[in-house]
UniProtKB/TrEMBL annotation:
GO molecular function: G protein-coupled receptor activity; olfactory receptor activity
Stored SMART domains: 7TM_GPCR_Srsx
Keyword annotations from UniProtKB, A to Z: G-protein coupled receptor, Membrane, Olfaction, Receptor, Sensory transduction, Transducer, Transmembrane, Transmembrane helix
Signal peptide start and end residues: none
GO biological process: one example: cellular response to lipid
InterPro entries linked to this entry: GPCR_Rhodpsn, GPCR_Rhodpsn_7TM, Olfact_rcpt, OR51/52/56-like
Protein name: Olfactory receptor 56A3-like
GO cellular component: plasma membrane
Domain G-protein coupled receptors family 1 profile, first and last residues per copy: 46-297
Membrane topology: Multi-pass membrane protein
SUPFAM superfamilies in alphabetical order: Family A G protein-coupled receptor-like
Name of encoding gene: LOC112910917
Subcellular location, record wording: Membrane
Length: 320
């Protein structure tokens, strides 16, 4: 492992990186480790229960719940990719990460976050059809639709985000090996290179705004149309029920997008805020939505709650 060096590039290639996680604010590690651990356990447990419930309960084998299962799967992968390493740094000071592991983490983060955004879009479309075109729902939102949506989500995001870690991995790392972050974020890693990283920055910026920006716009349009349809509902209590369900979904999507936008703006204004703030937001963005998604999307749904009750009864009966 090479030490950090501010001088001109060395001839020896870097084989490991050091994650310089909150070294400027060491007290953060102490008070962050407990809530981060709780959020991680909540996210893993809640999403695992949701996946198992959808798998075992035949009544939940419907398109809407398949999309919810996909969201839970993405949340689990993102949490496992980021949080265990951050906790290992907090608890055991294990800051070293190999070259290949670093770029694998970068690939998963850059790929799965837009996948999650695209899944939100598919779920927003599902709610739009259910409320605005209820008579056509069974013919539009089918298992075939979900299969095509999943293939689109995988293909679009993998094709557009795969070049990000590839471009970074092809750079020449010849001296500096300390990443000023808790994770292998593309820009944090690529700036350690001796090469010109302008292409990396431009490509990531274009892809991020193209994927996440377009998803967010389409989600907003979907919920505006949903809100307009809800206000026209005349059945007693129908509007309130629909507004409650879609409102909680929209708030969660807004939170997902807001924390990402705050991270972008604080990173741009890094001279005016502590450098650790964007790092903190980046870490939290991989665990807070994952902990909230199964609660807002799953537990608030009557069919999911009934499925969890059945699952718990099965477990209780087997334990007797």
């Amino acid at each position: 492992m090479l030490p950090y060096n501010n001088s001109s590039c060395l001839s020896t290639e870097v084989s490991d990186f050091i994650l310089n996680c909150f070294v400027r604010s060491p007290s953060w590690q102490h008070w962050l480790s407990l809530p981060l651990s709780i959020l991680f356990l909540l996210a893993m447990g809640a999403n695992a229960i949701l996946l198992i419930t959808i798998q075992l309960e035949a009544s939940l084998h419907e398109p809407m719940y398949y999309l919810l299962g996909l969201l839970s799967l993405l949340d689990i992968v993102l949490c496992l990719t980021v949080i265990p390493k951050v906790l290992a740094i907090f608890w055991f000071d294990l800051r070293s990460i190999s070259f290949s592991t670093c770029f694998l983490q970068m690939f998963i983060m850059n790929n799965f976050l837009p996948m999650e955004s695209c899944t939100f879009l598919a779920m927003a479309y599902d709610r739009y059809v259910a409320i605005c075109k209820p008579l056509y729902y069974p013919t539009i939102i089918t298992d075939h639709f979900v299969a095509k949506a999943v293939l689109f989500i995988l293909a679009r995001n993998t094709f557009l985000t795969a070049p990000i870690p590839i471009l970074s991995a092809r750079l020449h790392y010849c001296g500096k090996n300390i990443i000023e972050n808790c994770i292998c974020a593309n820009l944090s890693v690529s700036k350690l290179s001796c090469d010109n990283v302008s292409l990396n920055k431009i490509y990531q910026l274009i892809v991020a705004w193209t994927l996440l920006g377009s998803d967010l716009v389409l989600i907003f349009i979907s919920y505006i149309l949903i809100l307009r349809a809800i206000l026209r509902l005349k059945a007693k209590g129908a509007a309130a029920k629909a507004l409650s369900t879609c409102g909680s979904h929209f708030i969660l999507i807004l939170f997902f997008s807001t924390i990402l936008l705050v991270f972008v703006f604080t990173h741009m204004a890094k001279k005016k805020v502590s450098p650790d703030i964007p790092i903190l937001l980046n870490v939290l963005h991989h665990v807070i939505p994952a902990a909230l998604n199964p609660i807002v999307y799953g537990v608030r749904t009557q069919e999911i709650k009934e499925g969890i009750r059945k699952l718990l009864r099965r477990v209780t009966e087997r334990c007797k």
